[in-house]
Design goal:
With 516 residues, the chain is of the alpha/beta class. It has three domains: 38 residues, no CATH class; 243 residues, Aspartate Aminotransferase, domain 2 (3-Layer(aba) Sandwich), CATH 3.40.640.10; 182 residues, Aspartate Aminotransferase, domain 1 (Alpha-Beta Complex). It is built from 18 helices and 15 strands. The strands form three sheets. An eight-stranded mixed β-sheet has the order 2-9-8-7-6-3-4-5, with helices on both faces. Strand 7, helix 11 and strand 8 form a beta-alpha-beta unit. Helix 6 crosses helix 13, helix 7 crosses helix 12 and helix 14 runs parallel beside helix 16. The termini are far apart. Pyridoxal-5'-phosphate (PLP) binds next to helix 7.
Length: 516
């Protein structure tokens, strides 16, 4: 009998088939026992990314997903892709199919320098390591800097995809509140003081200052300046994660932290995922040389190098077309979808809800009354074939339970309207149930839960406008008739009693998105 005959029926040799038959079903308790003793202790705190889990559930075509952070790749012109791929094949086939240097190819680094220049930064290709997506930057920076128990300071809420990375390296993540001007740097300083008293020095601050994932808010220029000063005063590294800044729908660009700092303490994460394609898995990091060297070593161990094929494909694309034109077309599409979502929220969400009004990026952060748990709500919403990311995924301490992240880039206007209508319906059911059970009207979200709210009413009232970037994340609505004010949230009505804000994200009736 030939090998082919032996494997013919199953595609595997009989002894393998036999072993498989004798093996227990996947994930029985015996199975878990058998492997559990082998796992590294760090796996105990490893956690799946909530977004990945949700995306698996929402793979069904009938589900309208407002959950992912997906760009609309269907808008990319196929003929441009074909031209770039053909150019790549004829001009650089052998190199594109070969391994490359760990730090990346010079051609890709030159494209990266061009993208950074478009966002007001100068970078020497020598200071760049090309990575397998921006996600790898978060992983490599954490791998380079964090020993178990070391502190990472992150925003509250933070990028849900960073949470499992920090957990895998057993970081102690301390989250600092944000409001509509981004991370509260005054609270960051208080946190740093407290940590210092405890003898703990954070290894780095992780921030997404522009059109933050998940909240959509942008850090004001004043706060950016102060953050850079704090970094210099304390010799503190900052990881600036910046996938969205070029997707701006209104207002003027704000300088990046990297531009303000000159690359001394700010490590910069960039990616082609949102301005071109996440399928290419192409990102980059710019960091001070000693840090970059360690990152490079970490990357060698992780994957030797980033795909040379996609690096050279980006180069071919940059030669073939003007990449800025595509970003402009995305900006048009997403601005309109953001407006559609804001209108749909005003129409379909109950008066007790509030939400941010991003001036760019892909996300709106909505907050519901405290008694609604958005993880439970998601289960109900999925029954109606619609998905979002529950706010809890953006926190490490269980906060965010009554918030949700909504994405407006991935589906068309009709799907956005229908998706928001369906979520609004399940929210309304919860609100009605609360009313029936308690005999009371649902209170507006309390200030203690997770939502970006500006620190100062006047500051918020002049935003957006004035200083570039100030208060862009929220629609300032200096009204006095708000439900939240009636519910005890009058100026500074945070649940924790601290001085907070009374002017916060767009409320029902807050009007259509302003177009400028
Ligand atoms: C803030 C932030 N950082 C990093 C990433 C990872 O992006 P990439 O596709 O480049 O790995 C994302 C993706 O959504 C993101 O939103």
């Amino acid at each position: 009998m030939t090998i082919d005959d032996r494997w013919a029926s199953t595609g595997e040799p009989p002894e393998v088939r036999e072993r498989r038959r004798a093996a227990p079903e996947r994930s029985t308790s015996r199975d878990l026992e058998r492997y559990a003793g082998l796992f590294a202790s760090r796996t105990r705190v490893m956690k799946s990314s909530a977004m990945r889990d949700i995306m698996a559930v929402t793979a069904r075509p009938e589900v309208i997903t407002l959950a992912g952070g997906l760009p609309d790749t269907s808008s990319f012109p196929p003929e441009t892709l074909a031209a770039a791929t053909t150019r790549l094949a004829y001009e650089s086939a052998a190199r594109a199919l070969q391994y490359g240097p760990t730090e990346g190819l010079i051609e890709a680094k030159e494209c990266i320098a061009e993208v950074m220049a478009a966002d007001g930064m100068r970078c020497d290709p020598e200071d760049v390591v090309v990575t397998t997506g921006g996600q790898q930057v978060i992983d490599l920076v954490t791998k380079t800097l964090i020993d178990p128990g070391d502190v990472v300071v992150a925003e509250a809420p933070t990028y849900p995809g960073a949470v499992p990375v920090f957990l895998s390296y057993e970081a102690d993540v301390v989250q600092v509140e944000t409001d509509s001007d981004g991370m509260r740097i005054d609270l960051l300083e208080e946190t740093l003081e407290r940590l210092e008293r405890e003898g703990r020095r954070p290894k780095f601050v992780y921030t997404i200052p522009s059109f933050q994932n998940p909240s959509g808010v942008t850090m004001s220029i004043e706060r950016r300046r102060r953050l850079v000063e704090v970094a210099h005063e304390r010799e503190l590294l900052v990881l600036e994660d910046n996938p969205y800044a070029l997707l701006r729908y209104e207002g003027s660009p704000v300088p990046t932290l990297h531009a303000l700092d000159g690359g001394v303490f700010v490590m910069y994460l960039g990616t082609f995922s949102k301005i071109l394609s996440p399928g290419l898995r192409l990102g980059w990091v710019v960091a001070p040389p000693p840090v970059l060297e360690k990152i490079n070593l970490g990357k060698q161990a992780a994957d030797l190098c980033t795909s040379t094929f996609t690096q050279l494909l980006v180069k071919a694309y940059f030669d073939e077309a003007d990449w800025r034109d595509y970003v402009d077309s995305l900006t048009e599409i997403y601005r309109s979808r953001r407006d559609t979502m804001l209108d749909a929220l005003a129409e379909s969400f109950p008066p007790e809800a509030e939400w941010t009004r991003p001036a760019g990026g892909l996300f709106i952060w909505a907050t519901l009354p405290d008694f609604i748990d958005t993880t439970d709500l998601l289960a109900r919403a999925l029954r109606d074939d619609v998905a979002f990311v529950p706010g809890e995924a953006a926190y490490l301490d269980g906060r965010g339970r009554s918030s949700m992240r909504l994405n407006f880039s991935a589906v068309d206007d009709d799907a956005i309207r229908e998706g928001v209508r369906r979520i609004g319906k399940v929210v309304a059911e919860q609100v009605a149930l609360y009313g029936t059970l308690t005999g009371r009207r649902a209170p507006a979200p309390s200030r203690g839960d997770a939502r970006p709210a500006p620190a100062d009413r006047d500051e918020a009232a002049r935003a957006p406008g004035g200083d570039p970037g100030a208060g862009e994340g929220a629609h300032a609505r200096p009204d006095s008739d708000s439900d939240a004010a009636a519910a005890g949230g009058a100026p500074g009505g945070r649940a924790d009693g601290s001085a907070g804000a009374r002017v916060f994200p767009l409320r029902r009736g807050g009007g259509r998105a302003e177009r400028r």
